[in-house]
Amino acid sequence: MQIFSQQKVSGKIIDDHQINVSSVLVFNMSKNLKSTSDVSGNFTIEADENDELRFIKEGFYRTDRIITKRNLNSQMNVVLLRAETLIPEVTIEYKPTGNLEKDIKHFSDSKKVASLKSSMEGYMKSPLNAPLPINEVPKTFQSHDFNAGHVNLFKVFGEAVRLVKKASAPKMTAPTYGETKSFLMRVKTEIDLSFLTRLGMNEERIDHFLLYAERVNHLSKRFRKNFKPLEIEYELKTAFVEYAKLNKLSD
Fold first, then answer.
1. What is the CB neighbour count within 10 angstroms for residue 163?
2. How buried is residue 167: exposed, middle or buried, by Cβ count under 10 Å (0-12/13-18/19+)?
3. C-alpha of 4 from chain center
4. Which DSSP category does 147 fall into?
5. Which of 31, 126, 148, 230 is buried most, with the most CB atoms less than 10 Å from its CB?
6. CA proximity to 66, closest of 221, 224, 241, 180
7. End-to-end CA distance of the chain
């Protein structure tokens, strides 16, 4: 019987001042595994070539890395940028108009935004749920498998379809300035940004936030060739949780 050992990736996480960063959540998005960096910034996690790792810590920009053969054979160095040093502070305050009906509507919307920020932040910090047990009959009580030793044509066909879809998917490449600009214009046209306008954000402030989300989540690189409105909207709302905290947006 041949036994395959799990491959592991090890590395060190530092900030832009070469200081070790501890308690960073290291999440293997391809295998749904997680790990955490120690007090010296070191981490180890199971991963194979082409797996995508995501590094998350409050107060830092989220970073994604694709595993290469080099990462499997040598230590990976990851640099996390401190978010507060890159975004200028913006304060948005609501001034009551004296119109009770109008002011009440504003504060109702603010509670919804606060709930969104709280739930999204809680999701990013919470540990992954344990996998559910497999619902199947133990092998001891199963009847004889008459297909044992034969090729499963349905499985082979399904794998072939998966490989064809993977080969036909658009390759992820770095966008040009023009492509990024066109993508963000499309986002403003086709994505529901009402959660921003309800905070009183004008077009200039919305553009400021979109540039932040683009820089942190690489939206144009990931979605300009395959525009997925629901996924883009989710990425924007996730980015807004940290953006609102950094810029001290007041409800």
1. 10
2. exposed
3. 30
4. T
5. 31
6. 221
7. 62
Distance CA 218, CA 83 (A): 15
- What is the Rg, in whole angstroms, of the alpha carbon atoms belonging to the chain? 23
Q: What is the pLDDT of residues 106-158, one digit of tens each?
A: 655 455 556 665 665 565 555 545 454 455 555 555 555 555 555 555 565 56
Distance CA(191)–CA(83), nearest Å, equals: 25
Kindly state the tokens that stand for 214.
């683009």
Q: At which residue do the structure tokens 């683009």 appear?
A: 214
Q: How far apart are CA 187 and CA 204, in angstroms?
A: 15
Query: For the stretch 192-222, what's the b/e string if a residue is b when 16 or more beta carbons lie within 10 angstroms of its beta carbon?
Result: ebebbeebebeeebbebbbebbbebbebbbb
Query: Alpha carbon of 19 to those of 15, 77, 85, 228: distances in Å?
Result: 5, 12, 15, 37
Cα–Cα dist 243/205, whole Å: 12
Cα separation, 136 vs 4, whole angstroms: 25
